[in-house]
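Q: How do we represent a protein-ligand complex in a form that can be generated token by token?
A: Start from the inputs.
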Amino acid sequence: MTITAQRGNELRAKGWRQEALLRLLENNLENGEDPENLVVYGSIGKAARDWPSYHAIVDILKQIEEDETLIIQSGKPIGLLKTHKDAPLVIMASSNLVGHWANSEEFYKLYDQNLTMWGGLTAGDWQYIGSQGVIQGTYEIFQAIAREHFEGDLAGRFILTAGLGGMSGSQPLAGVMAGAVILDVDVDETKADKRIATGFLQRKTYDLEEALAWVDEALSTKKPLSIGLIANAATIYPELLNRGIIPDIVSDQTAAHDLLYGYVPEDVGLSELAALRKTNPEEVIDKAGKSLAKEVRAILDFKEQGAIVFDNGNNIRTQAKAYGVENAFEIPIFTEAFLRPLFERAIGPFRWIALSGEVQDIELIDEYLLKNFSDNEIVTNWIKLAGKYVPVQGLPARISWLGHGERTKLALAVNQLVAEGRLKAPVAFTRDHLDAGAMTHPNIMTEHLKDGSDAISDWPLINAMVASSSKADLVAIHAGGGGYAGYMQSAGLTIVADGTSEAAERLKLALDNDTSLGVLRYADAGYENALDEVKKKGIRRVEL
Ligand code: NAD
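Then emit the structure tokens for the protein with nicotinamide-adenine-dinucleotide bound:
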């Protein structure tokens, strides 16, 4: 079955708020990696528990009144509650397990019994916008490395990475946007094909010699280029080391967090892997762990020989350490190394989706941003680049890193454009869960916090409650599933700008309170930038 998001102005639901959520659910599968199995990204990050659940959710979204709330437990609709018109239309919790049981073994057991699913960060709550969802984050990492190590310029620089999946597939385009030559290794050719078809990757080959010849040629002419090499990263990284080839930057964004369904072991073919996962999951996990450890040892050797290396948020160091790589954590995590100063001010991956399906709606919002955020270099640089490079996937959408007050300013302006009929239909606003007040993951988002509060997961829970009491249209609490079980807690929200004054109020409350909490979270941990933001933006902080 092929699911595509409805475009245009025809409503199937009782209002735009409901219709918007329905289109976002459909859009998740339109952009998904394995829609037949409801998988959106991240190996097993799903949009709904199973097909009966999906169809029931669709039916309910078509019927639900403005003063009702649909409850979803790990992708399965459970019931409808009578609430009020300012309450969220949908509330959900995905993948949560109580502390002592929060491990991947227990998760897989419950997953096999179809009692839970992994919602990823943006899959279970229908906020996925294709590979572009994390592209600015990766681009800003490359820019930060360029500033710090390469005099601000990655032209003629070589990036080695792995993973061409849902999120990891943004790496080749982010590399090209940063001016570099990027070799991205993925074991699955269909993934490379998908990235080429969607405009995120330029070339692919099975042949390492050919790939390296392309790399050399592009480096010598300082032309940006992205190459997908169809191979296993655990084989290729050590092979490059053996040949004395040391890239300037090395990372990996395979689904390394999940040794059963994510990271592919070196010595098992993709066709036999599917069967082996069922017949002998322990063997798959063990082989994947050993291959991954081999790759991480190579990354550490690259580092030793001068490459800039980083963990791009897939728990690869944690897995490697469990498989004997004692010094895996010498690889820095991208958040702490490059992006934390932005998160300290609650500047994070905000996004919006044109429910009309019209690219012109996104272009008009781009124009607004360029005109009205002209003194914000991150925004203007990104919006110009995104307009030029980032292809449309599914419902046209845009991501841009915006902070407290900025998100609201944009959303209210867009709501006004909808009201005036200048946009063809309403616009949905949301963000990645990987945001200032919304995520605890002590090996990704909250590693090495100043006050040592890395594992405290009160913040995302407070975040979801704040979103619910601030009139968001959808609110989600997620935890880690698969290999992430026990590692993370996060929260998400979605608000629809339908041009009404009620929407303006919802957007202002939900977005302002969301970023206020982000700033307060970092202020509480003692970050100067956050304390400065509290003062500058008049955020009401309780001082003890
Ligand atoms: P995905 O499952 O869609 O894609 C992963 C890709 O890795 C697949 O194409 C797979 O074939 C490939 N792969 C697996 N093992 C391999 C190996 N040994 N060698 C080469 N290729 C291999 O997952 P995704 O959505 O791309 O996410 C990837 C990882 O990134 C996940 O762990 C996810 O949690 C993480 N992630 C991080 C961020 C962030 O903010 N930094 C954001 C999103 C996702």
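The chain is about 45% helix and 15% strand. The radius of gyration is 22 Å.
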